[in-house]
Write a structure and sequence with these properties.
Growth Hormone, Chain: A, mainly alpha
């Protein structure tokens, strides 16, 4: 393939100013994932969501995000990262307007899905621009440190702003806040960002459609199984169709000249097992956020703002640990050891959450476990990303970066769908024996936390036996 770029990245004088813009983009993408959590109860009351239907506020975003990340990375290769970055922000800004003005659950879900599509273009293109502009290893490590800090800050700000905005204005404004940010980023993109490299090749639109439709059908089948039943014709048929589409996706990638996901990349052991760990990490972490928010608001009766404040220590701890400690720990002990320790810490945290009582308190039942969860996430996420990308060939580093993001989003969607279904089944079973509503709901939350803890244990075992530590 022919590669072209207009500016030698090592000499690009505006790289640090451009990094601020790219970190702002990462901040917004992560904030859009976390800002919704503390507003769930207000949205449910306003738009009439069911308990299980609320997960589609998350899933509509993460399914499109995960389904189109590979395409976003491929388009960045073909047409230049800056162009795809800007198109992503155009889509995200328009989608935020639609979500902010939503008058029904279907309109909000549509807006969230389009937000996910825009983010799927922003995430890989912005990361590619970071690697392109910072060719010096020391500068690149520093830039990636700020990148990780911006992601953690986005999660922290999302929790706090989501609670404050919902409490003092309305949940509509948690989406409308993206509009001025998006317009500012678009205005500064051309002056600050280089065009990036371009390549000759074709876009695998069919592959992206097959993968996304398969994922949507699979998640929907799992969610609807709560009502239709796991052995119903509707559930089984949708699962079979989704599997057939995944098989079609496999063969489409195997024989295409320019596939969305070249299958030979999975021959790299650490890349394969690293992505599996990232899928399982997301499958545990996103349900933790989802059900901890519900526990705070529906069991402890916290307001949206107070719920955001309660989650703030965890998100700030993640930000501080990722910026200040994780890099040094990886340098000293290696990414494999940190992954295992982090997953064990996260599993213990989730086990503690699985014992939260109906009359729990923040200091005794939420704060200790949430801080331990912060340690676990900080020790796992960056080392997991390194494991999934560091062993990839240099010419496929962009593909590996897109793949690890895709794995995380797929794990988010499927993990939340499965654990919500498990939680709902437990809640209904407790209701059938005559337990009070609060007791039944809390029992479902406990079961969800325990299921997520088991997922972390499985991930730790895979990391221990599948990931290979680099030779000294």
């Amino acid at each position: 393939m022919n590669n072209t770029t207009t500016t030698p990245p090592a000499l690009y004088s505006k790289r640090w100013a451009a990094l601020i813009l790219l970190c702002t983009a990462e901040f917004v993408v992560i904030m859009d994932t976390s800002i919704i959590g503390v507003a769930l109860s207000a949205i449910k009351a306003d738009l009439g969501y069911t308990q299980s239907g609320m997960q589609w506020i998350f899933n509509a975003y993460v399914i499109l995000f995960g389904g189109f990340l590979m395409l976003g990375g491929r388009l960045s290769d073909l047409f230049g990262a800056r162009k795809i970055f800007m198109w992503g922000f155009i889509i995200l800004t328009a989608a935020s307007l639609l979500a902010g003005l939503a008058w029904s659950d279907s309109v909000l879900n549509t807006g969230r899905a389009l937000q996910g599509l825009g983010s799927a273009f922003i995430a890989p293109s912005s990361l590619m621009l970071v690697f392109t502009m910072f060719s010096d290893p020391k500068e690149l490590n520093k830039a990636l440190g700020f990148w990780g800090a911006s992601a953690a800050a986005g999660g922290s700000a999302g929790v706090f702003l989501g609670g404050a905005i919902t409490e003092w204005l309305s949940w509509h404004w948690i989406f409308l806040i993206n509009i001025p940010i998006g317009l500012l980023v678009l205005m500064r993109s051309k002056p600050l960002l280089i065009k990036g490299m371009t390549q000759k090749g074709k876009v695998d639109v069919v592959g992206a459609i097959l993968a996304t439709v398969a994922l949507v059908m699979m998640v929907y089948a799992i969610v609807s199984a709560e009502i239709a039943g796991w052995l119903s014709f509707e559930t089984i048929s949708m699962l079979l169709i989704s599997i057939a589409l995944l098989v079609a996706f496999y063969f489409s990638q195997k024989y295409k000249k320019h596939p969305l996901m070249p299958l030979h990349i999975f021959k790299v052991s650490n890349l394969s097992y690293g992505n599996i760990v990232m899928i399982l990490l997301a499958a545990a972490w996103i349900p933790l956020w989802f059900f901890l928010n519900l526990y705070l608001q529906q069991t402890l009766h916290y307001s949206a703002f107070n719920s955001g404040l309660a989650l703030l220590p965890m998100t700030i701890a993640i930000m501080l640990l990722m910026v200040g400690a994780t890099g040094r720990l990886v340098a000293r002990f290696g990414f494999k050891s940190n992954m295992i320790m982090g997953l064990i810490a996260l599993a213990v945290s989730l086990f503690l959450f699985s014992r939260v009582p109906v009359d729990g308190t923040f200091v005794a039942d939420v704060l200790p476990a949430s801080l331990l969860a912060a340690v676990g996430m900080s020790l796992t996420y960056i080392p997991g990303t390194i494991a999934a990308t560091a062993s990839a060939p240099p010419e496929e580093m962009g593909l590996a970066s897109g793949l690890v993001n895709t794995s995380y989003q797929v794990g988010s969607a499927l993990g939340l769908a499965i654990i919500v279904a498990i939680s709902a089944a437990k809640t209904n079973a407790i209701k059938m024996i005559g337990a009070p509503e609060a007791t039944a709901l809390n029992s479902g939350f406990q079961t969800a936390f325990f299921a997520a803890s088991v997922v972390c244990v499985i991930a730790a075992i895979i990391a221990a036996f599948g990931i290979k530590a680099p030779k000294p």
